[in-house]
Amino acid sequence: MYDAIIKDTEASLRRVMNIPDNYKVGFFQGGASTQFAMVPMNLMTTGEADYLVSGQFSKKAADEAKKFGRVNIVASTKEENFSCVPDVDAAIYSKNASYIHICQNNTIYGTRYTKVPQVAGVPLVADMSSCILSGPVDVTKYGCIYFGVQKNVAPAGMAIAIIREDLLGHAAENVPSMLNYKTIIDNDSMYNTPPCFCIYMTGLVLHWIEDEIGGLAEMEKRNERKAAVLYDYLDSQDFFKNPVKKSDRSLMNVTFTSPSAELDKKFCAEAAEAGFVNLKGHRSVGGMRASIYNAMPAEGVDKLVDFMKKFAAENA
Ligand SMILES: *Cc1c(COP(=O)(O)O)cnc(C)c1O
User: Going by DSSP bridges, is the β-strand pair 48-53/253-256 parallel, antiparallel, or unpaired?
Assistant: First the structure.
């Protein structure tokens, strides 16, 4: 019975994301953070890899990779408080890197790459945890795409990786079976008991995108419209500020601050009372963050903007 569910989920992901046949798909336990280790364990074949640091998750990924080899931080926007992503053309990539790693959408800072590094012969590896299925992706630009499913796809606890076939099978002998991409993929993600419910839910969400939304191009239009409502409002006034460079603004996570930390606190409290929950920014950056993932309807964003206007008028 389960065989049909997992096969249908994978087939749906392949259709929705238009994944070429020379890419394998695997379902893995342990969320995206386990992928931070699995990527170097499986793909760092030269003992060296390049990382672009654009926020907390890409830093965590780089720090984890250091346990397995040499990590070259080829670009970072730490100096800019991660208010933008690195210029991928200006980065100086290493000759001997096994891969180049990026975090495509920076959940905490509300930034994203609209252009990705393309270096001949060096595969690009991307953490897409907080933007996956938000719009079309050209899978052929990547050697490996991975994501924790809990933002846009399914309940927490699982990650999915999409890996170009030729990159598989080069892990060291001592890599544990459960952490070896090839073990899981060769066993159709059923080497051990798979995260059944997460996979089942992933299938339902993919059918929703395909059958009810009409695919990723349509999903992207919805997300662009939703984000534009918030950014247009933010740009139209002076009370709230969005710290992000315009060209790098995320469609999924919109960050903003009020004139003071006290007002930020008041905003979050009054917003929660009005039914807008989880608006507090990450503890490392403060302020507010509206995560408007695929599941957030347009009305949710419209109502939030109405609430923000009211709050600004009352507290200006
Ligand atoms: C949420 C998130 C993670 C962490 O995912 P876990 O499944 O909790 O390990 C990693 N990267 C990005 C970009 C995220 O948004």
Answer: unpaired
Instruction: Tokens for 30, please give them.
Output: 């342990």
Ligand 1 centroid to Cα of residue 315, in Å, is 35
The amino acid that residue 173 corresponds to is E
Q: Kindly indicate the confidence band of residue 255, based on its pLDDT and cuts at 50, 70 and 90.
A: very high
Contact 280, 268 (CB under 8 A): yes
Output the pLDDT for position 283.
Answer: 87
pTM above 0.85, yes or no: yes
In sequence order, what E strands does the chain have? 23-29, 48-53, 70-76, 100-103, 105-106, 111-112, 124-127, 144-148, 158-164, 253-256, 288-291
The backbone torsions φ and ψ at residue 209, rounded to the nearest 5 degrees and listed phi first, read -65, -45
What does the pLDDT look like over 210-230, one tens digit per residue? 999 999 999 999 999 999 999
Q: With a 6 A CB cut-off, is 54 part of the ligand 1 pocket?
A: no
Tokens for 124, please give them.
């690009």
Between CA 305 and CA 316 the distance in angstroms is 16
pLDDT for 284 equals 83
Q: Is residue 21 classed as helix, strand or coil in its secondary structure?
A: coil
Separation CA 36–CA 16 (nearest Å) = 25
Distance 242 CA to ligand 1 centre (A): 23
Least Cα distance to 126 among 152, 150, 146, 106 occurs for 146
Q: Is the Cβ atom of 107 under 6 angstroms away from ligand 1?
A: yes
Look at residue 285 in the predicted model and tell me its pLDDT.
Answer: 87
Cα-to-centroid distance, 113 and ligand 1 (Å)? 17
